[in-house]
Every structure is written in C-alpha cells, then in structure tokens.
Amino acid sequence: MKYSAWSLLRGALVGQRNWSPAWRSPDPKPRYDAIVVGGGGHGLATAYYLAKNHGLTNVAVLERGWVGGGNTGRNTTIVRSNYLYPESARLYDFSLRLYEGLARELNFNIMLSQRGLVLLAHSRHDLDSMARWANAMRMNGIEAELLSREQVAALAPALDLSPEARLPVVGGFIQRRGGTARHDAVAWGYARAASKLGVDIIQDCEVRGFLQADGRAVGVETSRGPIHADRIGIAAAGHSSVLAKLAGFRLPVTSYALQALVSEPVKPLLDTVILSPGTGAYVSQSDKGEMVIGAMLDLFPSYAQRGSFAIEQAIVAATLAMFPAFSRLRMLRQWAGIVDVVHDSSPIIGATPVPGIYINCGWGTGGFKGIPVGGWTLAHVLATGKNHELAEPFQLQRFLTGRLIDEAAASGIAH
Ligand SMILES: Cc1cc2nc3c(=O)[nH]c(=O)nc-3n(C[C@H](O)[C@H](O)[C@H](O)COP(=O)(O)OP(=O)(O)OC[C@H]3O[C@@H](n4cnc5c(N)ncnc54)[C@H](O)[C@@H]3O)c2cc1C
C-alpha cells in the first residue's frame, strides 16, 4: 500500500488496522539469480537497485538476525560528502544526492534533515587544514564554507566559546547539505521497496559457508539449508572478513567496536551537527530531543558488540569540554557496532578473488552515508559483471597496486 496522509486518515477511521506488513517474509527458494548476504542498509539497497536499475528480481537478501539490526540500526545517522579526494567526493556526493530524493523514491519518510555539519577548529593549525579541506571540496564541486568563531557561535550557542575553554573554538567549516537521516527508516524503506519489486527478504538466515564448483561460487550454505545462485554479493560490514574466510580469501579489514550513546530527551537546543575531529566527539539532537553522541573506536580489534566504560568516560569528557551544560543530562543508552576498518579508510566495492562473489565493505565508521551508493554500485557489478565507474577506484586490487585513497583525515572519527 502507498503511504500517504490519506492512508493515515483512512487508518484513523478503522483504528489503524489497515496496515499490512512492510515487506514479505517468504521461506528461501532453492535457487535465485543473485543472493545478497547481509540485511543492513547496504545489502537492502543492493537488492533494491538490482531490481529497480537492472530488472533482476529473483533475488534474496539473507540476514542472520533482523533487518537493520547491525550497524545500520546502531549508527549516529550522520550523512555528508565532505571528503578530500576526487574519487571519494564523487562517491559520497552521489550518495548524498540519492539520499536527497530517497524518501520520495521509496515512499518512506527517511527523515533526512540537512541541518548542516560543522567541524570545529581548535587551533590555527586546525583552521589551516580545514581551509585546505574546504578548498579541496569546492574543487570537487561540493559546497563548503569556512566559519569564523562568531559564525560557529551563531550556529550553536550552547557551545563553550570562551577563550578559557579546555578546547577553545577558533572557527570551523560547514557542509550545509550534511545532516542526519533516520537509520531504521533507511533500512525499512529499502526493504519495503525491494520486497515490492519481488526481492525475498529472509531474516534469521545465517550464511555459514559458500558452495563452490569449478573454482567459482554457486551458492551458500545457510542455517536454513543450501541456496544456489551464480552471483553473490556480501555486505556484512564488521563481519566481512569472517565471510571472506568462509569463502576462502582474505580482506585487509580489521574489525573494531565503535560506540555511541544518547541522553534523555530535552527541548530543542542544537539544530546542527557538531563534530570535533580533535577529540573524536560529535553531537546532534534527534527529533525526539535526545543528544546523540558519537564516540571513537575501541583501541583493540574485537567482535564484542557492546559499550565499554573507558570509551564512554573519554567521550563524555570531550563532549562536556564542548558543551558544559550537558553535564546535567542523564544518559539513556550506550551501545556498540562492529565496524570494518580498512587501512586507507575507504570502502571496497567489487570483485573478490573467488569468481561469482562480490563485496561491499570497508566503510568503517562512515558507511551509513554511503548506503545508497554502496547499494547502487554493488548492484551494478552483480548485474553486469563490470565495475560501476564510481566504484572503479575502490577495488580490492588497490592493496596490490598501492593506489590507496587515504581518507583517514576526512573519516571524521580517526581510524
Ligand atoms: C556507533 C556507530 C556510529 C556510526 N555513525 C555513523 C554515522 O554517523 N554516519 C555514517 O555514515 N556511518 C556511521 N557508522 C557506520 C555505519 O553504521 C556502517 O558503516 C553502515 O551501517 C554499514 O552498513 P551495512 O549495511 O554494510 O552493515 P550492517 O548494517 O552491519 O549490516 C550487515 C548485516 O550483515 C549481517 N550478517 C553478518 N554476518 C552474516 C552472516 N554470516 N549471514 C547473514 N547475515 C550476516 C548482520 O547481521 C548485519 O545485519 C556508525 C557505526 C557505528 C557502530
């Protein structure tokens, strides 16, 4: 059914009992044209674009838990395209442009809020490097503005801008098209739209191995039995290297827990996103009023998907240095997701050493913003066997050739 104000009104007349499930939950078929492993945003977007852009509808998304239960449902929802290198600028800005039309396209309110993303400069050196960063963005055709201390003050009056602050703010820069989107809605919107086009979304279905014949993948072994397909896409974020190992190849991915926390809801106080690259802390206010606070990576690799007190303490200290008034806030929840960090902080999208298996991983701490383009480009290579031009520089091969795209500085949270 189409979601609209009319369907809400119609629902009001029948006690809101007119809603059908947003996507079908069929049993897996023995064979598909393509399988996507991972029901996060990237996997669901891949399935949607396979169906929509390439007419491939005999597709299954296999998710071991529930749709959006991985990093897609655990992230701090920031979208932006403020990267340094032309390859990344093209990739991330394509994604942001897809986000800008996504609610209408999917008929699902993803609550995109382009409230601007402000990066704080705490020293003259920060300002110099931000000037370089903003210039690089402009040369890549993406708007960016350097901000004086007074302009930052006008955007976020709750910030401590006194010269005595532990981290004095001397200015910053803003991407006004940056902001936030509702993470669950992105997953649900893609799931619903893909299902409508005929894709099977199969939850509670863990991939435990890959079926291979004559040196190529021909299917997967799952907790619900074998499923065959000649084209398999992996979009499993922090568990990509686990799946790669099952398939018999290695990835230059290290998995870490990344943490975040939210406060109790308060009245509107912050209508932009504030990020301090120097401390690794960033804050936005959700539509419910909670302060959503993002933290840095754990210092050691791990698959333990839970928060830890040490990181929480450090991030609360960094946040309070910026917003002393937040010391009164009570924290509601803290959690972690397992992110897939690659040495150059750029994603990997394309073929793997096993013919028939393609991968989309390595987004690390910043793949929510990349969901539309990650799905678009993985779908392209799955459907055509050829890399999408946007994904060409992001091949696994770059770790052999040395043509890395080092976006550590722009990744926001230090990798
Ligand atoms: C705390 C935190 C804050 C973040 N903040 C931001 C942010 O503000 N902005 C931003 O752009 N990015 C952010 N990120 C990163 C972003 O969340 C991820 O890069 C992105 O969600 C990855 O999407 P995905 O679909 O690849 O992975 P996921 O959503 O993790 O989906 C992968 C799915 O694969 C499934 N899976 C794994 N193994 C198997 C298997 N064997 N069989 C079947 N299914 C399997 C998992 O259950 C999971 O649902 C953050 C991450 C975290 C943890």
Output the helix-strand order. HEHEEHEHEHEEHEEEEEHEEEEHEEEHH
Helix content: 25-40%
Bound molecules: flavin-adenine dinucleotide
**Side-by-side strand order of the widest sheet:** 5-6-4-14-15-16-13-17
Query: Globular, elongated, flat, extended or rod-shaped: what is the shape?
Result: globular
Low-pLDDT runs of 5+ residues are: none
How many beta strands in the DSSP annotation?
19
Q: Look at the helices and sheets and give the structural class.
A: alpha/beta
Largest sheet: 8 strands, mixed
Summed over residues and divided by their number, the pLDDT gives a mean of 96
What is the first-to-last residue Cα distance?
43 Å
Number of helices: 10
Radius of gyration: 21 Å
Strand content: 25-35%
Explain what this protein looks like in three dimensions.
This protein is of the alpha/beta class and 415 residues long. It contains 10 helices and 19 strands. It has helices at 5-13, 41-54, 86-106, 124-139, 149-155, 183-196, 240-247, 309-322, 371-384, 398-401, and strands at residues 34-37, 59-62, 78-79, 117-121, 145-148, 171-175, 179-180, 200-202, 207-213, 216-222, 225-228, 231-234, 253-265, 273-276, 281-285, 290-301, 331-342, 348-351, 357-361. The relative contact order is 0.19. Bound molecules: flavin-adenine dinucleotide (FAD). Flavin-adenine dinucleotide is lined by residues 37-43, 62-65, 69-72, 74-78, 206-207, 235-237, 239, 243, 258-260, 294, 337, 339, 363, 365-369.
